Every structure is written in structure tokens, then in C-alpha cells.
Amino acid sequence: MFTGIIEEMGTVEKIHHQGSQAMQLVIRCQKVLEDVHLGDSIAVNGICLTVTRFEAQWFQADVMPETFRSTSLAGLRAGSRVNLERALPANGRFGGHIVSGHIDGVGTLVGKTREANALWLEIEADDSLMKYIVLKGSVALDGTSLTVSGIWEKRCAVSLIPHTAEMTILSGKHTGDRVNIECDVLAKYVEKLMNNRQEVAEASGMTAAWLQEQGY
To answer: By the 8 A CB rule, do 101 and 43 touch?
Structure first.
């Protein structure tokens, strides 16, 4: 589990492609390697990847086809900057929100403006993602825990304080760039439970129409 508080920005040093939809990433970094072990989880742009090799200043991770297809990692090149966060230790501080490192989908940056000390980003996403995004709720963009400050039919907006803009790759994004989105996991659990309850009710014959007939 992660919190969406980015620890450092790393740099993609090498990409070893394995067919058309799989690859190995070699990422140069420092802070997230301070206590690293083989098999550790590190979130790269919000995607939970497993450390398969490491040295003093880099680690390697495999990207399988499902991750390649479902995220923006396919767009990385040697020299690309990436957000990095280690998995939360049991005695760590919970500074952001619950982030699993499992991306729900990819959105597109469609607007970028400044207001005083804030940097506004406007993201466009499919309905399948937008239904989980609510005003003043939490969302992880490229692994960064942010508060939703504006919402429309197919778009949402977030506002970055100077520290977040400086410590993450989000401020360097341009209109048209893709952004990994992980919605709040609580919303997905609530939806699943409500759907299950509806299915049980329908199977038992206790529908809304039946309840009306009984005077409820």
C-alpha cells in the first residue's frame, strides 16, 4: 500500500523491450534505495512495480503486458522523469490517502493554468473513471495524492501547491500528455457492495416495485 506522497523523482536510464507489450525498466534514483531489498514494491508514476535487481543508484523492474496496456508506461523513454514512492511501512505516517498502486485507467491533461501560487491541472477521463471522482474527494494522478477541486461531466481539476509542483513530475506535463489515474478505492468497494445488495434483492423478488405494492 502507498499514500500518494511522492518521495523523489527518478530518471529512466534504460528500457529493455520484450516484445511489443512488455519491458524492463532501469530507473536511476537515490532516496527510495536507502533500505531496498529484492522483491520490494516501489510505485513508479503510481504503478506498483517489483524490484528485481538494484545497485547503489538504480533499480530494475519488469512491466508485464497488462500493465503496459493499462497505464502510461508505454510512453516512457530513456531520460523520462518518474514519480517514485516506497510502500508504506507499518510504522509509517499516513500523509496522503489509501493508494494501492493499481491504476484504474489513463486520463489526458487538457488544461494547465496558474493562479497565484497554485498550479491548476484539468484532466479528461472516461465515464468509467469519472463516476468514482467526487468534488473534494481524493484521487491519485501519476501516484500523487491530490484533492479534486473541480468536476464536470468528463473532466476534473486539481490544484497543486508549490511543494507538490516542485517534488513531482506533474508540473512538467503538457496539454495532451497522458496521466495515470487511481480512483479512491472506497468508492469502488461501496459500488460493489451496493450492486451485490441489488442483485440479492432482485433474486428474492424484493424489488422497488414489490416494496411499493406492500405500501413501503
So the answer is: yes
Beta strands 47-54 and 58-63, pairing class = antiparallel
Q: What pTM value is reported for the model?
A: 0.88
Length of the chain: 216
The CATH topology of domain 105-190 is Elongation Factor Tu (Ef-tu); domain 3 (2.40.30)
Please report the DSSP string for 108-124 in residue order: EEEEEEEETTEEEEEEE
Determine the Cα–Cα distance for residues 188 and 191; give it in Å rounded to an integer: 5
pLDDT tens string for the chain (216 positions)? 999 999 999 999 999 999 999 999 999 999 999 999 999 999 999 999 999 999 999 999 999 999 999 999 999 999 999 999 999 988 888 888 999 999 999 999 999 999 999 999 999 999 999 999 999 999 999 999 999 999 998 999 999 999 999 999 999 999 999 999 999 888 888 888 887 766 555 656 666 676 677 676
Are the CB atoms for 70 and 21 separated by under 8 Å? no
Pick the CATH number of 8-86 from 2.40.30.20, 3.40.50.1820, 3.40.50.300, 2.60.40.640: 2.40.30.20
Contact, 133 vs 149, CB < 8 A? no
Residue 180 near residue 143, CB atoms below 8 Å? yes
